[in-house]
Amino acid sequence: MFYPGSPTRVYIAPGVTDMRKAINGLSLLVTDQMELDPFSGHFFAFCNRKRDMVKILYWDRNGFCLWQKRLEKDRFQWPDTPEDVLAVQSHELAWLLDGLSLEQRTAHRELRYKTVI
Fold this sequence. Notes:
Layout: E1 10-12, H1 23-32, E2 43-47, E3 53-59, E4 64-70, E5 86-88, H2 90-97
Parallel strand pairs: 1-2
Antiparallel strand pairs: 1-5, 2-3, 3-4
């Protein structure tokens, strides 16, 4: 589905989402609340009130895919910010799914060089 370094964008709906919603309901949230295009091929991630379930919606060439993960123990460190949507990188989504927070202070910082020797 996704891997670090993937060119696909990831959009996270902070806070709580009603997990009774399936593809149609979540695609409406993407369009109406996030004001994004659900047919873009990007990933749209949602989390429930108990923080033990995540759903990821994305368009794959000819149809929607809905990926779900439910934890049996523990909780996701899902962001609860006032923004309507957070744009993150694929490795940051992987952090969330692994139980880490988005603010990883001990990760290696990204380096950018202008010339190659």
